[in-house]
């Protein structure tokens, strides 16, 4: 579309040329009067009334100064008056075009706004899908790592590590269901040193602990935090549960996802629990609860390797019960087994946390003591002897005690 100014300049140019040829014969007066009309015509670009004013003045001046030629007077007045509608017509066209453009601009603006909103919505949806894919990818990666783990402690630590790195989770805890109730396995974040008794109460009222839900707990700000309870169910059997503290606005997402990840965790937890039980049976004597000979010797072998690396020494005590065969022959093997159990308890109480105790054979025990002196070892050996002598056993209304012979050996770095 031609610019309004350019259009008026074109009109002005042609009018000057036209008037010049028409009025050249009438003298300079009519030319200057025509210039007045044309100047008004041009000024109508900024104010439409200028053309009316200038055309009327030009007509009046013609009447005053062009008396000799009525035809030229008539023709000049007709031309001057005919200039008046042009600016109004052009302006009406331009205003109509403006309105049309404004309407189109409004439609385009609305379309752009809707497109932009759709774009933002698609970006948000894409980000949500990416987050979801990232979560699924992390869960898949975690599941792959968990499948390689055969220890309950490692398994639980991996799960806690996964939650601690997840956005919007401020704390968590994993509990295992045991015969006596609930055992805390691992915690992180704001639940690290928290008493979980108020959390455990929720389990008993949550549909026997099988419902995935948010806990109504007053210990945290309900406006910002939500406590999610996730039972670990395997074949309708509750093996344990997970508590996580999350941002309030993520509650719905995690409640939706909880059955997926907790069921995966439960199956793996059942597997590592089974492995731990097998390992425990391979390490622990089923009668006395002491370490089995093979596992004990493994531990001692590991400790032996330290001797030539660091300044380190340890003591081995061999304990052989005196005439224990007579107890089995006189009172029976059942009484002998009960006596061995009590003797194991006596030895463990004397050792405390200072070493390891294993069952070496039928009535033989082996003790490992590290980071201790010869004097302390002799004190412990005497303590065991005195405790055994003072311990009375009773069977068929007869009381008896057991004594032991203890041998001591020291292993240290050779200088």
Can you give keywords for this protein?
415 residues; 12 strands; 5-stranded antiparallel β-sheet; 12 helices; 5-stranded mixed β-sheet; Beta-Lactamase; 3 domains; single chain; alpha+beta; Alpha-Beta Plaits
Tell me about this structure:
- Strands 2-1-5-4-3 form a five-stranded antiparallel β-sheet, sandwiched between helices. A five-stranded mixed β-sheet has the order 6-8-9-7-12, sandwiched between helices. The protein has a two-stranded antiparallel ribbon with strand order 10-11.
- A hairpin with a 2-residue loop joins strand 4 and strand 5.
- The protein has helices at 4-23, 28-43, 49-65, 70-82, 85-148, 152-164, 197-205, 251-283, 293-306, 324-331, 333-351, 374-390, and strands at residues 169-178, 181-189, 213-215, 225-234, 237-247, 291-292, 313-321, 355-359, 364-370, 393-395, 398-400, 404-412.
- The protein folds into three domains: 4-83; 149-282, 2-Layer Sandwich (Beta-Lactamase), CATH 3.30.450.40; 291-412, Alpha-Beta Plaits.
- With 415 residues, the chain is an alpha+beta fold.
- Helices cover 59% and strands 20% of the residues.
- The protein is rod-shaped and about 165 Å long.
- The model has no long low-confidence stretch (mean pLDDT 80).
- Helix 2 (28-43) packs antiparallel against helix 3.
- It has twelve helices and twelve strands.
């Amino acid at each position: 579309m031609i610019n309004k100014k350019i259009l008026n300049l074109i009109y002005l140019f042609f009018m000057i040329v036209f008037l010049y040829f028409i009025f050249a014969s009438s003298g300079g007066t009519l030319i200057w009067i025509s210039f007045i009309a044309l100047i008004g015509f041009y000024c109508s670009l900024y104010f439409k009334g200028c053309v009316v004013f200038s055309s009327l003045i030009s007509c009046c001046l013609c009447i005053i100064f062009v008396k000799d030629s009525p035809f030229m007077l008539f023709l000049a007045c007709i031309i001057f008056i005919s200039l008046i509608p042009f600016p109004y017509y052009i302006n009406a066209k331009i205003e109509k075009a403006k309105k049309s453009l404004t309407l189109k601009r409004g439609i385009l603006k609305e379309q752009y706004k809707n497109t932009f909103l759709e774009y933002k919505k698609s970006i948000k949806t894409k980000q949500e899908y990416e987050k979801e894919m990232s979560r699924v990818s992390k869960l898949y990666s975690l599941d792959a790592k968990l499948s390689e783990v055969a220890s309950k402690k490692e398994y639980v630590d991996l799960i806690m590590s996964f939650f601690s790195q997840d956005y919007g989770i401020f704390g968590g805890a994993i509990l295992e269901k045991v015969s006596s109730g609930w055992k805390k396995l691992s915690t992180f974040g704001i639940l690290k040193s928290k008493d979980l008794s108020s959390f455990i109460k929720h389990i008993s009222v949550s549909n026997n602990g099988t419902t995935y839900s948010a806990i109504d707990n007053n210990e945290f700000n309900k406006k910002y935090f939500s406590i999610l309870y996730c039972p670990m169910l395997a074949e309708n059997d509750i093996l344990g549960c997970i508590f996580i503290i999350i941002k309030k606005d993520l509650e719905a997402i995690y409640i939706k996802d909880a059955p997926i990840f907790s069921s995966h965790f439960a199956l793996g937890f059942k597997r590592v629990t089974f492995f731990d039980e097998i390992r425990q049976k391979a390490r622990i004597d089923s009668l006395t609860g002491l370490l089995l000979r093979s596992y004990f010797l493994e531990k001692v072998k590991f400790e032996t390797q330290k001797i030539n690396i660091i300044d380190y020494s340890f003591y081995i005590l061999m304990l052989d019960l005196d005439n224990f065969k007579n107890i089995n022959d006189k009172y029976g093997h059942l009484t002998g087994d009960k006596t061995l159990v009590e003797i194991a308890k006596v030895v463990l109480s004397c050792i405390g946390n200072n070493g390891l105790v294993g069952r070496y054979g039928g009535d033989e025990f082996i003790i490992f003591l590290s980071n201790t002196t010869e004097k302390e070892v002799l004190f412990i050996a005497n303590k065991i002897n005195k405790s055994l002598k003072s311990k009375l056993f009773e069977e068929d209304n007869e009381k008896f005690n057991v004594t032991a012979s203890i041998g001591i050996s020291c292993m240290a770095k050779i200088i």
